[in-house]
Every structure is written in structure tokens, then in C-alpha cells.
Amino acid sequence: MKQLAQILLIDDEPRNREALSLLLTGSGFQVEAVGTGEEALKVLQQTPYAVVITDLFLPGVSGIDILKRVKIDYPYTNVVLITGNASAETAVESMKEGAFDYITKPIDFEKLKIIVTKALEKSQLVAENLYLRQQLRGKYAFDNIIGHGPAMQRVFSRLEKIVHTDSTILILGESGTGKELVARAIHFNGTRRNKPIIAINCGAIPAELLESELFGHVRGAFTGAVADKPGKFELADGGTVFLDEIGTMPPPLQMKLLRVLQEQEIERVGGRKPIKINVRVISATNADLEADVRAGRFREDLYYRLNVIPILLPPLRERREDIPLLVRHFLQKSCQEMQRNLMSVSPEAMQALESYDWPGNVREMENVIERSVALTDGDRIGRADLPPDIGGLDEDAGDGRIAPRVTEKGIDMPATIAEMERELIRDALRIGNGVKARAAALLGINRTTLVEKIKRLGMQEELSDLRS
């Protein structure tokens, strides 16, 4: 985050400007002083300032004009106005336009120092919040949802259409498909991005506590309610509430949620006064809500309220063309987090990853790649470095040698044989101290055949440090 310059001082009277500048500088503040509003606007275009101190009455561009421009273009900058007329109207107008504070002439310098110190603290806090929001916006940009196949392109097309609406959204998909990532992307790319998004997992909170978590409670509402407490909907006012695992919500609470969606108001547990709110609701489930409606486990009217715009996230097995992209993404992420050189994946390992059905979807893949990066010795992940159920390889009870095993998913026999040949050649060359003739003898083949196999398997660079 770029550090803000501290103070821009604007006063058209040279003596006042110089004196005030010296006093502020002597108190440890960094100050740049200019004589006109026009100069100030030019300086502000080049350098961000935390605080602007300006005389209210300036020739040409006035102090109020500067205040209005700053509030539009520089939200992290606080403005302090200096006026010789201490009228109530002047004070009211300046504060209405967004001034941080004002001070009258003759200036009480100790009071000004206190005002400036508080203004600097507030400006830095606002700048940090803006920076964090920008970081979050970048993290949850649509570009960070990986996928170029037709299934994900359909998702992206729908996201682009709904991001600037306030419609209620239901995200459907198996566990691990990235439902919360999509919910946050909708929020941070939409009109509510400067307000909070608050997520709550309806299945992770006991039913008797869920109502209080969502809607808050008043003091004395139940044992342990020693003070009033706002719920998630109040805390998210102006922003978004993300209700994950919505299908697990108890039926009595479903009725209360329906009323919230219809009336845009909540009642705290134990309270009697409705509280108006303005939130967008995004919910998600890996359950078949239509089946739950038919079975009477989920209210039909609530289902239709939540399902205004559905987004179906495909499981990873239905978008295998995206697997190499995801592998590279998680490989880069894990290597960076573990401070390792960027690793690669062998063709055989990639084939195994693409053939696997991924019941845990993208979340499972992230865990598999993280595990492989942590446990692989070299800079290349081979099929043997993958979990046995993915690599199609099992550990032998004897010497730990991995052995191929045919599963119901089948096996890529040519790729498996090629990987076995690589392992055997590596072992033979290691035992033979890199002497190809000796390695060939250990393998029961002639040296020429060994050399041809090394070329065919693309092992020349890998074995370049061994003696020929």
C-alpha cells in the first residue's frame, strides 16, 4: 500500500501560510504549502495526502470547492477548514459537505495539532481499509475462478449477467466445487462490494443457537444472554449474507428466514421490535433441495424465494479439461507457500490426475497437490508421488516398491509401463554408479537398448549428471 503524504496546507496569505507551516513542521508533521485552490488541485493529482488544511475563503477555487473535490476523488483524505467567521451556518455547511473538522481564527495551535493528529489516524485507517478491499477484490476476481471448458464458461456467462443485480442467488454443487468462492466473487464484483459479506454455515451451528447467530438476541432472551447482541443479518446491513448448507436449516427457522426475505426486516430473539435491514442473500447447498421439498423437509415457498437465480457448479469429473489448469494453479500456490522452487508434474502423473474422478472436487485436488509438494523429494511429481488411489499404484508390503494395480477405474497400461521402466533405469544407474554398461547388465539388456530407452523416455536431461 502506498504511504500517504501527510499534510497539504492552503492559505492565500503568505505570512499566515509560512507561520502555520513552520509550526506544523516543528511539531513533527510533514507539510507542503500552496497559496491557491488551483495549485492545490494540481498537487493533489500528483500526490495523495492524508490531510488537507485549507482556508475557507480563497480567491477562485474556495475551500468548500476543494472539500467537495476531495470527497469525490480522494476518499482517504480528511479536510480541516480554517475560517475567520465562526458562524453556525459556516460550521454546519462545512460538516455537511464532509469536512473532518474546522477551526476559527485566531488559530489555537494546540487545538489544531489535536485535530490534525486525529485526522491523520482516521485517514490512514481509511486508506488501509480501501487497500484491503482492493486486495480482496483482486483475490475474488472472476479471473481467479479457474476453468476454460464449456461447463465453466456457462457459469462465467451467468455471473457476468447477475453481478450488478440484487437478486437472491442459490448456488448448487457438490461438496468442494467452490460455492463459497463464487459467492464471494459475486459480492466483491458487485455494487455491495464496499460493504461486508458475512458467511454462516447453517450445518455447523446447533439448531438451538442458529436463530441467535442469524438474527441476534436481546438481553435476558435465554440463559447466558447477558447483553444485547446483533446477528449476522444486522452486521451485514448494506452487504451480503452467505448461507452455506442452507438445506440443513431447521423448519421453524425456515419460516423466519422466509419473512426476512419478504419484509427485509428481522427480530432479535426475545425482542419485539422489527429491525429494518438491507442485505442480499446468497445461499448454497450440496443437497437436492427439490427432493427435500417433495419430502416435506424444506419449505416450498422458501425454496422459490432462494432460487430466484440458480447457479450450478459442475463437479470436476465433468470438466476434466480444466484439470491441468487447476493442477498448475495449486502447484504454484503450494510451492510458494512452502518456499520451494516451482515443481513440475510428469506426463504419467498428469494422466493419472486427469483420469481420477475427484469425489471431493477442487478442494480434494488442492489437498492432493499440497501433499505431493510436501512429500516429493525432487522438483518433479511423478505418478508414484500421488496417493495410491489416484496414481493407480499400491505399496508392496516388502521393500516399499510401488506396484501397479488395476482398479475399477482402469489403468493406462503404456504410461504405467513407461513409469516402471524409468524407475528401474534410475535404480540400475544408481547401483551401477552411473555406468550405463553396468546398469544394462543389471537390467538384463545390452547397453545400446538402454541408451535407446533413455532417449525414448526423455530421461537424458534427468540423467545428465551421471557418468556415461
With helices defined by DSSP (H or I, 4 residues minimum), what is the helix count? 19
Terminal CA distance: 55 Å
**Shape-level CATH architecture of the largest domain:** 3-Layer(aba) Sandwich
CATH superfamily of the largest domain: P-loop containing nucleotide triphosphate hydrolases
Q: Count the E strands.
A: 16
Pick out the low-confidence regions.
395-400
What spatial form do the alpha-carbon principal axes imply?
flat
Written overview of the protein:
46% of the residues lie in helices and 14% in strands. By secondary structure, the chain is of the alpha/beta class. It folds into three domains: 5-137, Response regulator (Rossmann fold, 3-Layer(aba) Sandwich), CATH 3.40.50; 143-314, P-loop containing nucleotide triphosphate hydrolases (Rossmann fold, 3-Layer(aba) Sandwich), CATH 3.40.50; 319-456, Orthogonal Bundle (Helicase, Ruva Protein, domain 3), CATH 1.10.8.60. It has a five-stranded parallel β-sheet with strand order 2-1-3-4-5, sandwiched between helices. Strand 15 and strand 16 (402-404) form a beta hairpin. The longest helix is centred in the first third of the chain and has 31 residues, at 109-139. The radius of gyration is 32 Å and the shape is flat.
Topology record:
Elements: E1 5-10, H1 14-26, E2 31-34, H2 37-46, E3 49-55, H3 63-73, E4 78-83, H4 88-96, E5 101-104, H5 109-139, H6 150-162, E6 169-172, H7 179-188, E7 197-201, H8 207-215, H9 232-235, E8 240-244, H10 251-263, E9 265-266, E10 275-276, E11 280-285, H11 289-294, H12 300-306, E12 309-312, H13 323-337, E13 344-345, H14 347-355, H15 361-375, E14 380-381, H16 388-391, E15 393-395, E16 402-404, H17 413-431, H18 436-443, H19 447-456
Parallel strand pairs: 1-2, 1-3, 3-4, 4-5, 6-11, 6-12, 7-8, 8-11, 13-14
Antiparallel strand pairs: 9-10, 15-16
Domain Response regulatory: 6-120
InterPro entries: AAA+_ATPase, AAA_lid_NorR, CheY-like_superfamily, Homeodomain-like_sf, HTH_Fis, P-loop_NTPase, Sig_transdc_resp-reg_receiver, Sigma_54_int
Protein name: DNA-binding response regulator
